[in-house]
Sequence to fold (317 residues):
Amino acid sequence: MRKTTRLRELFYRREIFVLPGVANALQARMVEAAGFEAVHMSGGGTANCLLGLPDAGLATLTEMVLNASYIANAVDIPLLSDADTGYGNALNVRHTVQRFIQAGAAGVHIEDQVYPKRCGHVAGIELVPLDEAIGKFRAAMDAKRELDPDFVVVARTDARHAAGGGLEAAIRRAQAYRREAGVDVVYFASPESREEIAAFVAGVREVDAEVPIMGDVYAVQPQPTWEELQALGYAVAFYPGAAWSVANLATWDYLHDLKERGAAAVTEFQRRTRGHPLANFRINDLLGFPRLRELEQRYLPPERLRKYEESSGVYTP
Fold:
């Protein structure tokens, strides 16, 4: 089954699926190894981890598509990728969707912010006019129909926290994106409560009772269970920072410990992680070193394989 078809099936099935976000291909492999059915490429994670920059519209289409291609080709599960605002007007959006399809992504979400955008949880968000946003989503849908009709186009509205916006504006925009542009999925950015999610879902369902709905739940406290999200009407339990934000915190803590305690921090880390599936170079199992050795044995002459008998290492595939 094509990855685009699989992602579409996940969105339209009755049971909720869980979508963890990553910043790179290694984290995507971890998501797949953990048993998740799909993976998300975060625009914020890409800007932060690839460029060392804030999520403020500074990552370009080229950089985002390149990272998406690395991730999509590292795993067998489908990738839903952040595509920011589509990097311009409706014509740019058309080109953006084509590029992500060609890169191997199974879907993208595009937001209705002005360009350059900013993280949906950061103050200062501005929206493009509604008619302009509808045109951009129409262009996205036309582009995907030409190359792969199963490719999933998600319309994200950031109206909840935008200048001049609010919950009602978010609902009106989501309704229009489904009704006027026919997007595959609508995305509610940054709700603050279960009540807001319920109101958004009810409003969108007035236009189309079957449209899949997703949204981040970072600001909703305490965090809704997956059962709650499904009961509220979401198709996805979505955690865009799942892999990379946790990695950032762990790296920060370890580096400060290393600076403070030196070799003792290394010793403690090795002791604490002994037996971990990724420790002591076992990460190479996840990355596919054993498969490379299998291919060497298949294609290389015997004398080239003697390197394994005549060398040594901490890790042997």
Notes: The domain at 3-242 is CATH 3.20.20.60 (TIM Barrel). The CA atoms of residues 73 and 154 lie 21 Å apart.
